[in-house]
Amino acid sequence: MLAILVYSFLLSLVPLPTLSQTSSYSVFTYPIPVSNSNSNLTFALNLPPNSGDIFFHLSGPSQYSWIAVGFGSEMKDSLVFIGYISADGKNVTLSPRIASGNSEPSYTSSLNLTRLPGTSLSTTNNTYTINAQCSNCRSWSGGSLNVSSHNQYFIYAVGPTAGEGGLVNLKSDDLGAGLQRHFYYGRFTMDLVQATGSGGLPTNSQAFTANSGSASVTPLKIDRDYALWMHTLLMISAFLLIFPLGYLMLRFWDSVRYHWWVQSVGVCVVLVGAGTGVYESRLFNKSKSFQSAHQITGLVISSLLLLQWTLGYIHHKQYPQRHRRTWITYTHLILGPSLLLTALINGFLGFKFADASNRTVIFYVIVVGVNMILVGGVMVCKLKRKKRERRLSGRYANLSPTGSRRSVDELGLDETAYDSNVARELKGYEEDGRYVDNPVLRVS
């Protein structure tokens, strides 16, 4: 019995991986805007002497999809601890990651991370609370902590709020879950000499309400995923506005010249949009490999658009001389609508790939539907007008409009546009049911 008592006493002297009531630590806290108020992001750090372990506390507003603190002065080669809502929405997932640059950090399994009591998600106060011990975390691939530094650099960031930009909020148990670009970020320093002491942190989180042994280096910076917005705006503008307008320039207004210019602008917009898409893809882990259906389809469409533009240019150059359609013409006529339809479907895939909310996807589908109805309605009006013109031109079957052939020779109009121009000229020379002589027209 005496041996058991002695063993129990000695065991009580061994430090355990729990939070202590008294310890040495440094604290950084900074107000983060939430709606019309502020909520603090707080980070506290303790470094037990003669050990490779660290104890830390991280808390912040859960209205943001994730919160994070990184060890280092910049993202490159930084060790980052990220917290986000668990899949069931009742707890916090803690993910250790390494950042290779100004892009999404990647999960690392080389660190031994232990969640400590007090880690929770408060739905009442809308707060993430993370208490953890990390073994052998003072050095990692690409960096290390200088435990003798009074001004060790750290970085911090929070993700977008729920529903920001039409995106869904992150809820996952996956330690490598995809993250959306940070919404706010900043940099601070900590006194690691002050943080060195007996292992553990206070169990009372009220001890972390004020800065201690820390200083903000840069003010809170606002960030947005501008490349994603630019990519979305350019592609939607091209395939829902510019290309349909170019189509109407030829089929409704019978202008090959403006058709060519508008479609050329559309191709340039798509190429710039594809470039921003490639840039955006390199920032996130799930898109770096370019293996998704949206990315592959988008690159194929961008390449074929250059072919489509070239075929159209050749067709409209050759037609005034040959006055007949060739394989280039038919390829151009089939490829154009096919690319447009495929691009609109790929837009749907793109919104899903970017984790857009269902509301955003539905809105996109509605816009596409309305666009098709409008273009279709314009073409129906065009067909009705052509029928009237054909009836009118039939009344002058004995007339040969030699002057109208100039439209074909100079502008490269196809037969549909040519016939329409002829009918329009004929229509202009009927007054009160009588034919008015016109030097451009001659009697056969």
From TrEMBL:
PROSITE patterns hit by this protein: DOMON (PS50836)
SUPFAM superfamilies according to UniProt: CBD9-like (SSF49344)
UniProt cross-references to InterPro entries, sorted A to Z: Cellobiose_DH-like_cyt, Cyt_b561/ferric_Rdtase_TM, DOMON_domain, DUF2427
Main location: membrane
GO cellular component terms, semicolon-separated: membrane
Localization: Membrane
Domain DOMON: 39-159
Pfam family, one: DUF2427
SMART domains, alphabetized: B561, DoH
Keywords, comma-separated and alphabetical: Electron transport, Membrane, Signal, Transmembrane, Transmembrane helix, Transport
Keyword Aminoacyl-tRNA synthetase: no
Gene3D superfamilies tied to this protein: Cellobiose dehydrogenase, cytochrome domain
Transmembrane segments: 226-248, 260-279, 299-315, 327-349, 361-381
Signal peptide: 1-20
Record-given protein name: DOMON domain-containing protein
Source species of the chain: Piloderma croceum (strain F 1598)
